[in-house]
């Protein structure tokens, strides 16, 4: 069973959603990671390797926004550090363009070797914050501010708001915002809006006892047919079928259920 320890960021909290450390212990584990609007910096610790979509990896990589499900195999003894960025959050540190990262991961060069000297998670986190401080670029941060403002409104608003409504309400130029979004995230604002709706519905599907009609409406879908069509676009099955898959997951490990929340 995976041991995943998560930490809320004490620095750069407007760019980083969480920091996590994963250990597989004495057993290998396979995990399905659904489409996600987050980017992740993944740092293998203690010389370990894991498999991402069948490809071995033991290097530091930045994982882009994903419109696909990924299969990850963690061999026994895997130890991995992850920094989960908001869709725009990695850019001020690594300046990688989203079009090169969509559904992919890219090897990145980091200052030093995080985790090399750390004997516990507290020391590891201190090394992470030092690394981020070295990488941070203020000019790049200013470039992503319009995206950050839009995301905070769309992601956390109780009411569903279209990109057109947001731009009109905030006096933002749609064309400019869409162009920046495509550069930084690899997605147009329209595609990103659809991904966020899907993620909202997926989280509610896992965490709430609401009926599927309520879950679809809360995520911003027009009707049940719209909800089912979009859900199948991302996961190739209906919400009810996926809900059954989650409910039939191993009751002891809950590996599918838990990792959907985290990843």
From TrEMBL:
Domain HTH araC/xylS-type residue range list: 145-245
PROSITE patterns in the record: HTH_ARAC_FAMILY_2
Molecular-function annotations in GO: DNA-binding transcription factor activity; sequence-specific DNA binding
Record carries keyword Transcription regulation: yes
Keyword DNA-binding: yes
UniProt keyword annotations, A-Z: DNA-binding, Transcription, Transcription regulation
SUPFAM superfamilies named among the record's database cross-references: Homeodomain-like
Superkingdom field: Bacteria
InterPro entries in the record: DUF6597 (IPR046532), Homeodomain-like_sf (IPR009057), HTH_AraC (IPR018060)
PANTHER family in the cross-refs: ARAC-FAMILY TRANSCRIPTIONAL REGULATOR, HTH-TYPE TRANSCRIPTIONAL REGULATOR EXSA
Protein name according to UniProt: AraC-like DNA-binding protein
């Amino acid at each position: 069973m995976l041991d995943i320890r998560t930490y809320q960021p004490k620095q750069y909290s407007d760019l980083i959603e969480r920091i996590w450390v994963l250990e597989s212990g004495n057993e290998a584990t396979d995990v399905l990671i659904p489409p996600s609007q987050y980017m992740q910096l993944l740092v293998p610790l203690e010389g370990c390797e894991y498999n991402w979509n069948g490809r071995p990896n033991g290097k530091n990589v930045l994982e882009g926004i994903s419109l696909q499900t990924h299969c990850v195999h963690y061999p026994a003894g895997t130890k991995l550090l992850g920094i989960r960025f908001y869709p725009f959050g990695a850019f001020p540190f690594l300046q990688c363009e989203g079009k090169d990262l969509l559904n992919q991961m890219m090897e990145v060069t980091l200052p030093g070797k995080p985790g090399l000297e750390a004997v516990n998670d507290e020391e590891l986190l201190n090394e992470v914050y030092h690394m981020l401080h070295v990488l941070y670029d203020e000019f790049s941060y200013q470039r992503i501010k319009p995206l950050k403002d839009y995301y905070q409104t769309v992601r956390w608003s109780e009411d569903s708001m279209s990109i057109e409504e947001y731009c009109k309400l905030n006096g933002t130029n749609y064309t400019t915002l869409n162009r920046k979004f495509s550069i930084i995230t690899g997605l147009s604002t329209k595609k990103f809006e659809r991904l966020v709706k899907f993620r909202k519905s997926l989280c509610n599907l896992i965490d709430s006892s609401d009926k599927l009609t309520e879950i679809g409406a809360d995520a911003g879908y027009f009707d049940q047919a719209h909800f089912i069509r979009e859900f199948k676009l991302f996961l190739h099955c209906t919400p009810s079928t996926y809900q059954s898959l989650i409910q039939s997951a191993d009751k002891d490990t809950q590996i599918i259920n838990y990792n959907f929340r985290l990843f």
